[in-house]
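Chain A, query sequence.
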Amino acid sequence: GETATCPREASAECPRVASAEGRAASDRAAGRKMLFGNSQLSSFSVATSRSGSPAGAWRLFAAVMVCSCSPVLFGFSLAFTSPTQRAIVGNARGTDAHVNTPFDLTIFTQRQFPRYATHLTIGAAFGAFLGNSLSNRCGRKKALAVTAFVHIISWAMISLVRAFMSMVIWRLVAGIAVGMGSFVAPCYIREVVPPHLKRPLASLDQLSIVFGALLANVFGSFVFVEEYDGHMFCDWRSLSRLGVLLSVLLLWIVCMPESPRWLASKGQLRAARFALRRLRTGSDGLMEEESELTALAEMAVAGTSDQASVGNNRRRLREFRGPFGLTLGLVALQQLSGISAVLMYATEICSRMGLREAELGATSLMAAQLLFTGAAGHIADLVSRRSLLQLASAAAFVGHLGISYHYLAREQHLWAPEWLAPASLLVYILASATGLGPLPWLMLAESLPEDVMGRANATAAAVGWSCAFLVCGYFWDVQEALSPPGVFLLFAFVCFCCFLYVTLLVPESRGKAREPLVAGGGGARAGAGGAA
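Chain A, predicted structure.
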């Protein structure tokens, strides 16, 4: 009787239990109504969703291409300072001497330039969190539209202003847009493409970033060039207007469908199904995708009833602090190895190495990086993540050692082949493009569950941009303090530390479920015993 019926002394609790059950049933009924509407609308939605739109493939292609303008702007903004540095500080191409320059191109001194360049990284660190919050609240499409609008304003103002502080402020604003886009664009592409295209498009974000860097170097070094008083200068104001054009292309995202997964996560199942049909042509796999959207929408309704909050996501992320912390370490080491400084100051680095055509050298470096990045996805499928990271760290170590010796040989008049400097720089770019660059982010996705990926990606991006600020902001100061051989020897030491870090701590994530990697409550060494 004690378990089958309500005791007399607890009879006062029974109405409360009945009331709670009634409210739960009411919430479920309201949720179903919000998800499906009336039965006629529900049956209509299911019936019409069994095949996509005839123009779905073209619409999907357009959505992905337009969204890819965001990472293109990422690379363009980062590498903008490479071809423009000499003109902005008053040096002509092919000489280190300060010469007469067009009055509207020279803005500040060589010592002020790093302060201007690195404000992009400060804004990007803040923009990563802003993009996470904005895209979760307003949707991926609206967040990308805001990103495009901020890019348009910042690049238009950079092309017009002439004061140092104004340049710094608008560089900071451009950084905020870069940080927002670096979070939102990969989310949108991942959520709109069908499952069979997710893997082939996994490297699209990295490819677009490198393409943007190549675009900045090509147009800044060979297209927007101005002759003045017998010297050649980069017309960086015209190059800024190219940034405006790319931003306008990104603004076309307002004509594209919203992410079906985001709509479903907000309980808008009918809108999610409609957006999905607009992005698909045939019926293959469509029902499976709609089933996932339905499950996601039902979870959203349940989460709303349970008053799920951002605090829950934070507590959930703490459960996986082991693999998350390991990945943050990889992101930090990748940036501390100097990749952002190489991209930002590529032309000046090539010039100080003694290359006769520094602009051509920097552009060739970006073209090589584009080819290596394209091959990175295939290489990652052939070699284990951990082994590839070890190989990339070792190659980056060798590349920095070669650059350091080249500088030392020039200072001490030692023997060194002419090809040593460009070959060493190329080896480092190869290591970064195929291993140190993409693999930390790939391992982050493979070791954490989907429900914490948003906050995890934003935090990892902020860590990466903060390390990039340290490297780019103090690159020239450290070079003056330690000499050029010393600063690249320091980068080599970071790569050696990265090799030890991967060897001793990082587990293999390819082909493994997330649970073994986070077993034991996410300890710092979780899964290390099963590393490949």
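The CA atoms of residues 446 and 512 lie 8 Å apart. The mean pLDDT is 81.
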